[in-house]
Amino acid sequence: MPSLKEVKTRIASVNNTRKITSAMKMVASSKLHRAQQAIESMRPYESRMTRMMTSFVGSMEGDINTPYAAVRPVKRVAIVVYTSNSSLCGGFNANAIRALRNKVEAYRNQGVEVVRIVPLGKKGSDAVRKLGFADVPDFTRLLDHPTFQAVADIAEELMQQFVAGEIDQVDVVYHHFKSSATQVLTEETFLPVQLPKAETSGGVAADYIVEPSHEAVVQQLIPSVLRLQLYTALLDSLASEHAARVIAMQIATDNADELLQELTLTYNKTRQQAITTELLDIVGGSMQ
Q1: Would you say residue 21 has pLDDT above 70?
Q2: Catalytic residue among 14, 57, 89, 218
Q3: pLDDT value for 200
Q4: Which residues lie across from 185 on neighbouring strands?
């Protein structure tokens, strides 16, 4: 059985760790509240823009002439992966990095070249370097201060490479924030954009009066929706990260509480045993 000093030292150590995990949970909860407000405010706008594009494209006759919807044989791909800058958020980073590795391996097995990986988050940057990619861009500050313009610049660069034929497909890997307890790892195709048909009532599509032309509006609407999708994925990932960290720190705090109870019980038993031993020594000495 450990000595009283060892048990007491262990109790103090666990207690200090519990204070840290409890404080980190409070900080993560505060950040989660702000991130949740941001994503919940953005989703109606992003959803409305997507419905607008769906309805508008569905009302047009014939094929839609946009370079962002060009489907060609996939020989070169780019991947955007969202992770965090720091750890202590459960399996958040590990799941995203595992999905990235599986995707890269699957493409290589198919003979498809992964020409570029855009990691948003320090953990993702480290994983991409370990995969052997050089010149990895640094977007760590973007997670600390997310702005639409910075994400729009990334989306614009990817769209230009797609239009120029440098890449044939762009995939996105991120965590979708459903609730504080549920974050779903999501893999989507960013480019080429899928142009859905509008849902119509009675088989009659909406008829829009457009100036200057349908084509001009499409050329502006689709890139705007794409930029918005990439930014919404960033807000989704940030909210998921903070939610995962809250859960992880809560579990760590609960484990610390259980360990403190066990150590306190061990301390009391050890102390009682020491007292009993001393009493027996005293009684035994008085009888001699």
Answers
A1: yes
A2: 89
A3: 45
A4: 175
Known catalytic residue at 188: no
For the beta carbon of residue 157, count every other beta carbon within 10 angstroms. 14
pTM: 0.87
Confidence (pLDDT) at 207? 64
Instruction: Find the mean pLDDT for residues 141-170.
Output: 94
Query: What digits encode the pLDDT tens for the residues 149-158?
Result: 999 999 999 9
What is the 3 state secondary structure string of the chain? CCCHHHHHHHHHHHHHHHHHHHHHHHHHHHHHHHHHHHHHHHHHHHHHHHHHHHHHHHHCCCCCCCHHHCCCCCCEEEEEEECCCCCCCCCHHHHHHHHHHHHHHHHHHCCCEEEEEEEECHHHHHHHHHCCCCCCCCCHHHHHCCCHHHHHHHHHHHHHHHHCCCCCEEEEEEEEECCCCCEEEEEEEEECCCCCCCCCECCECCCCCCCCCHHHHHHHHHHHHHHHHHHHHHHHHHHHHHHHHHHHHHHHHHHHHHHHHHHHHHHHHHHHHHHHHHHHHHHHHHHC
Residue carrying structure tokens 């973007």: 142
Each residue's pLDDT tens digit, 55-96: 777 666 656 678 888 889 999 999 999 999 999 999 999 999
